[in-house]
Design brief:
alpha+beta, Aminopeptidase, about 150 residues, globular, 5 helices
């Protein structure tokens, strides 16, 4: 569990450092991806500032509406001030190239809202391809993508 910086008077960098010491993480050139279960990663930049979340949701049961039974669903949320700076690409590459993920999965699915073209481009650069499938929800129209590992 992340310790609230406001409760203890810690800076964000101190909190991130403490979190990294107690949870497994993947280190990249500019980021730390901190996890407790290898499904949800908290993303921190080189200054220890929380910039977003990446998750790999396990395969859903085949009777779930709209679920893909062929592999986990990748979900990425980068905070607005940090978008379009390469953090999404770096996080996706780091997670999908990690041994623990590579040994467990052969196919990864992803979706993005049609208007989130920056995220779509980041997924394309990470090796994802559009499937042609679109689904609609309260939040908008999603385009579906897949990457074979």
């Amino acid at each position: 569990m992340m310790i609230e910086a406001t409760n203890l008077g810690h800076t964000q960098a101190q909190t991130a450092t403490q979190t990294k010491k107690t949870k497994p993480s993947i280190e990249t050139k500019r980021m730390s991806l901190v996890t407790s279960d290898w499904h949800v990663f908290e993303l921190y930049n080189e200054d220890g500032v929380y910039i977003g979340t990446l998750s790999l949701m396990p395969m859903a049961a085949s009777d779930d509406e709209g679920a893909c039974p062929h592999g986990p669903q990748l979900w990425l949320d980068i905070k607005a001030p940090f978008r379009l700076k390469g953090y999404g690409n770096e996080a996706v590459d780091a997670v999908l190239s990690h041994d623990k993920i590579m040994k467990k999965h052969r196919v990864i699915n992803a979706t993005h809202l049609v208007e989130q073209m920056g995220l779509g481009q980041a997924l394309i650069e990470a090796g994802f391809l559009y499937t042609g499938r679109r689904t609609e929800s309260d939040q908008g129209i999603y385009r579906h993508m897949i990457r074979i590992l």
